[in-house]
Specification:
Elements lengths: L1 H22 L21 H12 L4 H5 L4 H6 L11 E4 L2 E4 L16 H10 L19 H13 L11 E2 L1 H9 L20 H11 L2 H5 L19 E3 L2 E3 L17 H10 L10 H4 L4 H12 L12 E3 L4
Antiparallel strand pairs: 1-2, 2-3, 4-5, 5-6
The chain binds heme C (2 copies).
One heme C (HEC) binds next to α3, α5 and α6.
Length: about 325
Amino acid sequence: MIKKILKWTALVVLTPIAIILLLVPFRQKLKYEAPFPEIKASKDSAVIAYGKHLVFGPAHCMDCHSTANNDSLLSLGQEPSLTGGYKFSLPLGDIYSKNITPDEETGIGKYSDAAIARILRYGVHADGRAVYEFMSFHDASDEDLTAIISYLRSAPSVKKEVPQHDLNFMGNLVQAYMIKPNGPHGEIPKSVVKDTSASYGKYLAHNIANCNGCHTARDLAGNSIGEPFAGGTPIEERLGSFTPPNITPDSTSRIFNWSQENFIARFRLGKIVEGTPMPWSAFKGMTDNELKAIYKYLQTLQPVHTEIASTFKPKEAK
Ligand code: HEC
Ligand code: HEC
């Protein structure tokens, strides 16, 4: 009798699991619908210049879409070319950023302005697949998306194929059941006032610079699950594991007692910790006003008391 019950229980439990696993290969290329935003690239030099500032500054596209030594190039007055191919080694497998130069074959030249805007705003690729949640521009204003896309269109075109993503078993499972397009959280502004207010700081920290994405803990699919800005999920890099620290106004925060001047000065220094994933080279190029606004916003956050842990754990020597 007991044996029979066990057998049936096993069947009832295992059958759905088997079905879930069997469906994994068929759920790798799920297609999604999303609107095409009414965004058109502009040829206006001021718009392009502002787009360039965003791309190489607060929006740090170059940090993920270039494998060059961006810091050196920028200090030599050169623009890194956004040919992609940067490899993210994640628990899900290897994911590569894309070539976003205007090349028609290997870059984004074949996509319309609206299709590029849809990728960034609604997280849906031109072919309908969900975009992995690396980019935080879902709520960026029409004006800022227009500037970014206008700059991308004006940049030199470079033909360079990037490797295909290489997901492992867990990656395929997550791809099949957890990866969904992420979209805007509310009404999207046509433009935002670019001043030094905490509200502009909030816009930058969440929708452009993605401070929130790293400094708040996330699940495997990239959704935030921790207390806002109280410290992020460890990021595996070549030299070891980096944990983005708590930056709420609490005594356990990394920026506790930093004045606005200290904060701006820290950003001007750029990268200090070797191998850190924080895009210091790009953030170094933020304006004083942008940094003032972000600083003000961080001061308005709910203080969260956390353990003070080291932000860097080197890889064990082999
Ligand atoms: C944190 C890393 C990161 C940052 C920052 C980033 N990207 Fe990406 N981007 C990626 C990755 C990874 C992919 C590939 C995603 C996928 O395949 O689903 C990607 C894909 C794209 C695509 C899709 C290209 C295609 O062929 O489908 C576009 C367009 C794009 N990024 C533009 C930008 C722009 C513009 C910026 C800055 C405003 C930016 N990205 C900033 C990592 C990043
Ligand atoms: C790609 C992930 C990532 C992003 C995006 C990011 N950070 Fe960080 N941040 C880190 C990591 C990792 C560290 C710890 C290593 C280091 O100090 O470089 C860090 C450190 C810091 C520190 C402490 C620096 C010090 O000298 O102690 C501050 C302040 C900070 N981040 C603020 C920000 C702000 C503000 C933003 C948005 C404008 C931001 N971060 C965006 C990952 C990130």
